[in-house]
Amino acid sequence: MFKRLILTNIKSFAQAYIPLSNFTLVLGTNASGKSNLRDAFRFLHGLSRGYKLADVLGGKYEGGDQVWQGIRGGPYEFITQGEAGGFVVASLEPHVWYTIAVRHLSDKPPLIFSEILNVGVDDLYEAEETEGQRLLKTRIKAGGDFRKGQVESLPSDEAVLTQIADYYRGRTDEGIQAVKAGVLTATTHFTNMQFLDLSPNALREPSYPGQNQLGDRGENLSTVLQYLIEEKEHKETIIEWLRELTPMDVADLKFQRDSRGRVSLALVEHNKRITSVESASDGTLRFLAYLALAFSTETPTTCFIEEIDNGIHPSRLKLLVELIETQTKRRNLQIIATSHSPALLNLLSEESLNNALLVYRTEDSPHSNVKPLHELPNFKEIVERRRPGALMESGWFENTVEALEFDKAQPA
Ligand SMILES: Nc1ncnc2c1ncn2[C@@H]1O[C@H](COP(=O)(O)OP(=O)(O)O)[C@@H](O)[C@H]1O
Ligand SMILES: [Mg+2]
């Protein structure tokens, strides 16, 4: 699980400290920086796939097909405007810190200028740019002592993180093994991520048996659900959730095959009427996708979900929150979700409310900032008297941080 992220000069964040929990709801007005936070996670994920920095930021092609969409705005907009370089620090369980710094010069490909992997109190490696060369001087702390450790030169157009295992292929000495183990922990965290942005069209697409991983737009929903409810014990739980979540339209699920062998989901109502996936309601399909995500063993550990309340009626949000809060805990999944819904905010448990983050920009500064709701002055007392959704609607969150920033700016 990600414990926190620290961003320095990344997109609209000049300096942001972002604590993360099993379920982190991200709030903020339009253009406050919520999706920029998602971009920072995608950056780490792209690196962990072993892509070159220019491809992570710009987009990656393999065999003529795009296999990875770059970060919005590409390499020149990944770093805060007017800055020459930026840092991303990720803190992971248990006690793993990964730091990467990137820079770009106009007309040149972006480069990594510093990288550190730290486990517990030990730095496993430290890499820094070599003057005038596109190489990272990498000190490996093998054997517990940097001075006795090894210095390698690795290309600075790709993360050292994904180069080390290959570089030391076959090496079994203890120090190098420890470095490889640390590298594996970090890359496993970063690869195990998904960025969900559901689209009704994709949710409706039929899929082939064996396609058991939900796509970012909701592709493969039909076969993911079919696979899930093959297990009897799973089926009962899922149907139970379904009946509660969608009391009007789903009592059971059916799966139909077309002439090409593709599977489409159909919804069976209590009165036995069957609705094909094409005519099912968008909101119901979104719900089914979240259900699939919550129960499928193929779900990556960390999911970033854009506008989680989108298309879902406020009266059903309660169950969605319950589903997320119970399943993230039970399965140790991590969900980071953006939302504009005061109704959703009202339904959060005390713990989720405290862990929710406000992303904001103040009038005097072009930069985004992040503040956990529980750090707002007197938040605990205020939400005993007023519902958090009402505070959100009235602009209380933004006004409060604006006032705090104003106080900070006054001379003592
Ligand atoms: N490289 C950058 N430097 C400074 N600001 C940036 C940079 N890239 C994006 N932004 C700012 O981020 C805003 C978009 O933020 P975004 O995260 O998409 O908003 P939302 O909270 O609606 O998801 C833009 O309007 C722009 O002001
Ligand atoms: Mg956005």
Q: Can you characterise this structure?
A:
This protein has 412 residues and is an alpha+beta fold. It folds into two domains: 183 residues, no CATH class; 106 residues, no CATH class. Helices cover 36% and strands 27% of the residues. It has 15 helices and 19 strands. Strands 2-1-6-7-8-9-10-11 form an eight-stranded antiparallel β-sheet, with helices on one face. Strands 12-16-17-3-18-19 form a six-stranded mixed β-sheet, with helices on both faces. Strands 13-14-15 form a three-stranded antiparallel β-sheet. It binds adenosine-5'-diphosphate (ADP) and magnesium ion.
Strand order in the largest sheet: 2-1-6-7-8-9-10-11
The chain-level structural class is: alpha+beta
Structure annotation, total helices: 15
Question: Which outline best applies?
Answer: globular
- The Rg value, from CA coordinates, equals 23 Å
- Secondary structure tally: strands: 19
**Rounded average pLDDT:** 93
- Give the termini separation: 40 Å
Instruction: Name the ligand types.
Output: adenosine-5'-diphosphate, magnesium ion
Low-confidence stretches: none
- Helix share, percent: 25-40%
How many distinct domains? 2
Biggest sheet, open or closed, and with what strands and sense? 8 strands, antiparallel
Strand content: 25-35%
